[in-house]
Amino acid sequence: MVGNYFVYILRCGDGSLYTGSTNDIEKRLAAHASGKGAKYTRGRGPLAVVYTEAFKTKSEALKVENQIKALNRGEKMALIERKKRDEPEANG
């Protein structure tokens, strides 16, 4: 689904996962990489995008972001693996 809002998961250099949402994914990822993104990701580089999903509306994206944030690490890893299996070219 192509949309204007995105939910993403980053794998931080320490192995932890960060979930966020944005309407400009390239700009947001650049902010994280430069240390100007979320406080959580500062000093935890290098960062790797391991999951992205597009939504038509901000409310849809925020709903899914909160659902993902409520998952435990194992559930998040399973979500990432499912996405890789379903769309191998879309995620690294």
TrEMBL record:
Pfam families: GIY-YIG. Residues 3-78 form the GIY-YIG domain. CDD domains: GIY-YIG_UPF0213. Belongs to the UPF0213 family. This is GIY-YIG domain-containing protein.
